[in-house]
Amino acid sequence: LGSICLAIAEEATQSKFGFIGKINTKGLQDLAISDPGWEACTITDTTGHNKQASNFKLHGIYGRVLLDGKGFFVNDPSHHPDSIGLPAGHPALTSFLGVPLFHEGKAIGMVALGNREFGYTPYQLEIVEALATPIVEAFNRKRAEDALRQSREDLDRAQEIGQIGSWRMDVVENVLIWSSENYRIFGIPENTPLTYETFLAAIHPADREYVDARWQAALAGEPYDIEHRIIANGKTKWVREKAYLELDDAGN
Q1: What is the pLDDT averaged over residues 114-128?
Q2: Model pTM score
């Protein structure tokens, strides 16, 4: 995701290379750096790779972007007051543009671009400042998706350990959604499309009429907390089921 965002910023500003970094406790951690930047860079880190270290101190001209909390560009970086020079092996820097990334009013990282032919102008700065918000939104959305996936994995693991499945029944559309453990309990291949009739078919024939009656009563407002048998992979199992009804504003 970082590489995609960086490629867009580079193309929009005709930059030769750049990086996107986020602030952490050690300084600035690179999330993405363009291939031309790596190809031109012969700096060797402690792991022996021809890449920069994963964390940079907040100093120099890119540090100024974050310390001031605003974007700027310079077309003669070596003579900028904050210039600290370039480490051996770093590609030559003929021009620089940096824009901070903000979340909830706090600088959390930056986009840095370099070596636009004939230098940068306020127009390129405006472009990257406009890109900053959607870049942050994209990262936040990705983090939220990752957190949701992790939460689902944790829930699935907890259900597997406890042998407790969960389910949701859309009574209007007749669509039944099971957790992974529910599929395991019932011995039905995961992701098999389910309906109320699919569920009834898995119930022990001697208990089917009873379960159906209790479910219809539950839809009328009675509690649904029952025990019954199912046939799973040719074996009889006892299960306990509970349901909590969700109603619309009209009480349906």
Answers
A1: 93
A2: 0.57
